[in-house]
Specification:
By secondary structure, this protein is an alpha+beta fold. The protein has helices at 33-41, 74-85, 101-109, 122-133, 173-187, 200-204, 212-222; strands at residues 4-5, 24-28, 45-46, 54-57, 62-65, 93-97, 137-144, 147-157, 160-168, 193-196, 208-210.
Length: 254
C-alpha cells in the first residue's frame, strides 16, 4: 500500500518507497509547478500514464550521469566537429537553450513505438512548462536547416539537474543536445545529472546507478546552492561550446 496525498500534504520519506515496483512512493491528483519543486527537492519524480492518478517515485538505486563521465564515441566526436563548423550557418546545425520548451516536451511526448504510449500527458506538459516559466526547468534545442530536430528538457534546482526526456528526429540530434548540456553543467559546477531509471541507452552514454541514499546526499548538498546562470547561455547559438578547446571539454576517451 502507498499513501494517497491530499493537495499540499507533504511527501512521505523516500525510504518508505516500495521495493516492487521499484521506488513507487505515493499517489495523488495534484500536479503543479510548486508540487514538482517540492518533489524534486526530495529526490522524487512523477511517472504515470493517461487516466491514472499522479504516481510519485524515488527509485533505488538511482541512475545518474556525472558530467565528466559522458561517453563520446568517435562518430559523435566527428558530428560535434560538424556542429561547431556550422555555428555561423543558418542552414546547418544550431544549438540553443530554452528556445521553445513546450515544443521540446511535445516532441518528447510523440509516440515512439507501435503501442503509442507516453507518460508526457497534456497535464504534464502544462506543469513542467509552468516550471520553465518560473526558471526551474530548461530545454536544449537542436535545429538543422532551421527545423527543430532534437532536444531534451529537465529540472534545475540550485546546482542540481534532473534530466527528464530527450528526442531525436535526425541522427545524433539528441546526443548533440546532451553534449551541450554536459558542457554547460561542467562549466558551472554541477556534479551529477539525475537520470532516474536505468536503461541500456543511458548506460552506453556513461550513466551508472548509485544507492538512493548517496543520491539524496548529493542532492541535499546541491539543491540550495545558487542557481546556475542559465541566462548566460540563453538567446545565442551554443555550437561553440562543443569545440575541443571550450570549457568543460575534457571528455574521456571514446
Amino acid at each position: 500500500m502507498i499513501p494517497w496525498l491530499a493537495p499540499g500534504q507533504p511527501f512521505p520519506p523516500v525510504e518508505t518507497a516500495l521495493t516492487y515496483p521499484n521506488g513507487l512512493l505515493a499517489a495523488g491528483d495534484e500536479l503543479t509547478s510548486a508540487r514538482l519543486r517540492e518533489a524534486y527537492r526530495e529526490g522524487i519524480f512523477p511517472w504515470y500514464s493517461e487516466g491514472e492518478p499522479v504516481l510519485w517515485w524515488s527509485t533505488n538505486p538511482r541512475m545518474v550521469l556525472r558530467p565528466q563521465d559522458l561517453r563520446v564515441s568517435r562518430s559523435l566526436r566527428r558530428r560535434l566537429r560538424e556542429v561547431v563548423a556550422d555555428e555561423a550557418r543558418e542552414d546547418g546545425w544550431q544549438v540553443r537553450l530554452d528556445a521553445d520548451f513546450p515544443a521540446v516536451m511535445r516532441a518528447c511526448a510523440a509516440p515512439r513505438d507501435a503501442q503509442g504510449g507516453t507518460w508526457i500527458t497534456p497535464a504534464v506538459i502544462d506543469a513542467y512548462s509552468a516550471l520553465a516559466r518560473e526558471g526551474n526547468a530548461h530545454s536544449v534545442e537542436v535545429f538543422h536547416g532551421g527545423q527543430l530536430c532534437g532536444g531534451l528538457y529537465g529540472v534545475s534546482l540550485g546546482a542540481a539537474f534532473f534530466g527528464e526526456s530527450m528526442f531525436s528526429l535526425r541522427t545524433d540530434a539528441s546526443k548533440i543536445a546532451l553534449a551541450t548540456l554536459v558542457r554547460i553543467l561542467r562549466s558551472e559546477g554541477c556534479t551529477v545529472i539525475d537520470c532516474q531509471q536505468a536503461t541500456r541507452h543511458l548506460a552506453s552514454l556513461g550513466a551508472a546507478p548509485i544507492p538512493r541514499e548517496q543520491f539524496c546526499r548529493i542532492l541535499r548538498e546541491s539543491r540550495d546552492r545558487p542557481g546556475l546562470p542559465w541566462e548566460r547561455y540563453r538567446g545565442r547559438v551554443l555550437n561553440g561550446l562543443l569545440a575541443p578547446d571550450a570549457p568543460g571539454t575534457q571528455d574521456p576517451p571514446a
